[in-house]
Amino acid sequence: MPKEQDIEKLEQLPLRERNHDYSWENDDYWGKDFPYRRMQRWIKSCKGRNIDEVISEYMHAKWVPIHHRFINQLRRHIELDTFMKDGVVHYYDKYMSIFRDRAPYTLAENGVNDCVYVHPTTRLVCVYKAPTRKSWQKEEQGKLAKRVRILGDYHQLYKIEGIWYEVKAKPLPPMPVASIGLSVYHSMYERCGPKDIIMEGGRSYSLKDTDPFVKITLKRQLNSKELKKYGLTNDKK
């Protein structure tokens, strides 16, 4: 029989019970004991070494828990499945390597992340440094400047088949959604923001549904003086 408690003592018990700590840090999960930060430092320090030596050192590293000393754990941190195609290093993503019908990636397609990989020819560990956001934006601006120069709202210079043109456009008045003539707008005109490329209307990543339909009002070839003024040249045919 459980011992009965005095009613007066029951009134002294706390009204709320202390919650347990269910934070992520105190959870048990596979890999919790793996030294990820040390692993990243060690992997990058292996640059220029033969992959066979790196694998051997990893398998015998005392700082790696013994149940993590296997090749698939190393594969999580370095791209081992690489090959050369058209003079460019390609690899199958480490998480999707079992699907051989999936298209391989190039190092540049790795996005904004650095990539440690094994060179398929030399078998040396290499580190691909992804471009920073600033350098990527500068590169994109450089590519854009080869075909378009923005002078103002709906006013720009645009290169067509090697020839530079001045292009202007004007926003069309809004059309009621219920109007039958709305289909005419869709078939004849494109939506375009003030700084979007007029001649490529509807293709800009920044295009919004609120951007108006525009009509091109000017398209003329630049003369030699204008080309010199803007520092442009037409391609020789």
Describe this structure in words.
This protein has seven helices and ten strands. It has 237 residues and is an alpha+beta fold. It has two domains: 34-128, no CATH class; 144-230, no CATH class. A hairpin with a 2-residue loop joins β6 (148-152) and β7. The longest helix is centred in the middle third of the chain and has 13 residues, at 133-145. The mean pLDDT is 79.
Provide a compact summary of the structure.
With 237 residues, this protein is α+β, with helices and mostly antiparallel strands.
Topology, pairings included?
Layout: H1 7-10, H2 36-45, H3 51-59, H4 71-75, E1 82-85, E2 88-91, E3 105-106, E4 115-118, E5 125-128, H5 133-145, E6 148-152, E7 155-160, E8 163-171, H6 182-188, E9 190-191, E10 213-221, H7 224-230
Antiparallel strand pairs: 1-2, 2-3, 4-5, 6-7, 7-8, 8-10, 9-10
